[in-house]
Design goal:
Helix 1 packs across helix 2. Strands 1-4-3-2 form a 4-stranded mixed sheet. The chain has 3 helices and 4 strands. It is α+β, with helices and mostly antiparallel strands.
Length: 93
């Protein structure tokens, strides 16, 4: 992997709150989320774009949860992680 292909993680305040709440309820989920974050950082463009009005974001699934993120240069900003039924109706900015 070349240096210009490296991506660095950033987490929104929403993501930090979602993450803390979810792993507090389910410790095994923390390992799954952290593993998915590493997968996304290796190749963020391989993930599906969301539809309007969230077209700036991409999604990664950790069933039954969805993690949303966007690419800002060489930074992948993780924005939300919530149950699939709720995540698309939540604020992202």
């Amino acid at each position: 992997m070349k240096l210009d292909e490296l991506y660095f993680p950033a987490r929104s305040e929403y993501f930090k709150e979602d993450y803390a709440r979810l792993v507090r309820k389910n410790k095994g989920l923390q390992e799954q989320i952290d593993k998915k974050i590493l997968q996304v950082l290796k190749n963020p463009n391989s993930h599906k774009n969301l539809k309007r009005p969230l077209q700036r974001y991409k999604e990664a699934h950790i069933d039954p949860f969805v993690m949303t993120f966007r690419i800002e240069g060489n930074v992948v900003k993780f924005v939300r992680i919530e149950h699939h039924d709720k995540v698309f109706g939540l604020p992202h900015d």
